[in-house]
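User: Sequence for Methyltransferase below. Tokens please.
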Amino acid sequence: MAEQKVRLTKEKETYLATLYGKALDAAAEHPILGDRFAADAVARIAYDFKALKLPRGGEITLPIRAWHFDQWTRAFLAANPESTVLHLGCGLDTRVYRINPGPKVRWYDIDFPDVIALREQLYPEREGYHLIGSSVTERSWLDAIPGDTPVLVIAEGLLMYVHEMDGIALLRRITERFPSGQLAFDGYSAGMLRLVSRLATVRGAKVELVWGVDDPHGLEKQVPRLRLAEDVSFLTMPALVERLARNGLSRAIHGMMGRLPFYRHLVRHLRYEFSEA
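Assistant: Structure tokens for Methyltransferase:
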């Protein structure tokens, strides 16, 4: 008997672009992420994915972004086999299945209730894995999570959509609740916020980006326990440039742009650490 297709309401279509980018990569001859779980989910959803307005190169940039955060996740779990993972604004990402964390890891995927309802239709349950349907900036969801282990907070593709005041309050609550941990997210500069918003308007998409990060050390002042551990320029990552640069001229242009500070700072992958005083 054929597996029943998952059908979407119009409101839920906005969650599909990042999933589709990873599914396209999974079908490539030489995949970056090789996310078969994303490919399986796309196959189960009754939707014309070709009609999606996927950003140009999204089948490369989206998998590489996820791959890099996966690398940070694996390193944290190797050093902290008994720990907690908070995947904020998880969307339809399948990181918990790609990583396959050990039995002493408590993993929480947090997103709006309609996203969590869709995840429940698409993905199987697993030991130590929990779903929380809530806005990440609501105060109550964190109260139900034990704060007795190191924590990894992943906020991939999220914080630029969160108002700074709300985001700072959330990060303060998390760092006060857990004894130690790490925070990993991608930060857009103020210039990148304006650029993405304008491009989205041209494509007819509605995108509201509100929190830019021009100085990663500024977050250390706003959330006192955080200390910047890594600051990686996403647009100049060798893995990304190698895939996007299709010829000598393109590689030369990427190299030239990569020497410009404003370009290197458009999109950063930032990892912070905190520990007990």
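The longest strand covers residues 181-188.
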